[in-house]
Amino acid sequence: MPALNGNYIDLIIVIVLALYIANGVQRGFWALAGDLVSFIGSLFIAFRTYGLVAKFLIANFTLPSSFAKVIGFVVVIIVAQLVIDTVVSKILKHLPEKLWNNWVNKVASVVPALIDGAIVSAIILTFIISAPISGEVKSDITNSKIGGLLVDKTTFVERQLVDVFGGAINDTLTFLTVRPESDEKIDLNFKPKTLTVDQESEAKMLELVNQERVRIGVSPLVADKLLTEVARTHSKDMWERSYFAHINPDGKDPFQRMKEGGVRFGTAGENLALAPTLELAHQGLMNSPGHKRNILDPSFRRVGVGIIDGGIYGKMVTQDFAD
């Protein structure tokens, strides 16, 4: 019999899923399916139309854009769910009695129950790794078999949620980045008291990057001491001056910082990430086309990975590439 080899996080998730299944069997497939349709449908409508409500609120009530987006999203999802619930309830009432009172209805309920439980678990786990709590707990979540998978999927969805909640959740994102070579800047609303150079994570990040390159037949990168120092300095500077950007407050871009650090190059690039764990940082960068392009670029031969651990606030990652 195959073993899961999970940790305590996986055990908790299994218990939660078991409870959802037990409740699902009592309610039946049709009731749970109706709930799922209502939730997914309202979420889809909210993502598509919340912007219209936000614009109305901004124009008529002079609300900040970040709050208007949040309010617009919440209003749309509540109204949409009420409407869909009403429609679904009327449809279900017209189903023949025999479809409700049979063993198939109970057995089939396992499917929507599992989906329901997985969604709730993913939301809770994402909230935990976003919160300012022990980094050890966050690592346990991302390293768990089931939890890690759920968080990975939630990270993908969260990229869309960032646009909805904007600055209102700036300090609670599970993964934060800016486009390569852009002048985007994000002000951080927190500042760690203790900063530590995370050499172990730097080595692991280099290993993960090279695994991605080898997988597609590209030569692995070699760690460069000068690039590493430039990367570490920038990660530390972003923590200390509470910003997140390729261009620092002094107006220096990655290429200027590399030259000042004594790095010689013809072609260069930079990736930035702020995440609770190394795994989330790497996955987030690989999910972004621009950052992935830098990681897999065959013209790059050297890299410097600088990771400064900010404790409960996460890991600040700078990847500096050069030919």
UniProtKB/TrEMBL annotation:
Coiled coil: none annotated. It is a multi-pass membrane protein. CDD domains: CAP_bacterial (cd05379). SUPFAM superfamilies: PR-1-like. InterPro entries: CAP_dom, CAP_sf, Colicin-V_CvpA. GO terms for biological process: toxin biosynthetic process. Pfam families: CAP, Colicin_V. Keywords: Membrane, Transmembrane, Transmembrane helix. It comes from the Bacteria. It is found in: Membrane. GO terms for cellular component: membrane. The chain crosses the membrane at residues 6-22, 29-47, 67-88, 109-129. Residues 206-321 form the SCP domain. The keyword RNA-binding does not apply. This is SCP domain-containing protein. It comes from Candidatus Blackburnbacteria bacterium RIFCSPLOWO2_01_FULL_40_20.
